[in-house]
Amino acid sequence: MTDEDGLLDGELIDGELIDGELIDAVRRAWAETLGIDADEVPLDEGFFDAGGNSLLLLLLWEQLNGLTDRALRATDLFQHPTVRAQATFLVGGS
User: What distances in angstroms separate CA 92 from CA 14, 21, 52, 63, 88, one per listed residue?
Assistant: First the structure.
């Protein structure tokens, strides 16, 4: 089953199975940080292009840190700047 964005309940991205709930959680974290509706958060646009700045990135980092057991550094968000890339990274992808 897919949603309006074409995401599967579990989506294969770059060889990693990403749980739809994790993508939604990352998207909600972005929405709260950026002060927009989750439906408006782009999946494939960088955080800074979506309206973020370095201070907001640190707030996002705090929120994402609690989503999985994987250790997340603020610098990881620069290397994985989109919702999809961050969800992939959080499940152990590159």
Answer: 11, 16, 24, 18, 7
Question: Mind listing the domains of the chain with CATH numbers?
Answer: 10-90 (1.10.1200.10)
CB 51 within 8 A of CB 90: no
pLDDT in tens, 37-87: 999 999 999 999 999 999 999 999 999 998 888 889 999 999 999 999 999
The partner residues of 12 in beta bridges, in order of sequence, read 17
Hey, is 67 helix, strand or coil? Answer: coil
Name the token pair of 91.
């499940």
**Token pair recorded at residue 12:** 């294969």
Q: What three-state secondary structure class fits 43? A: coil
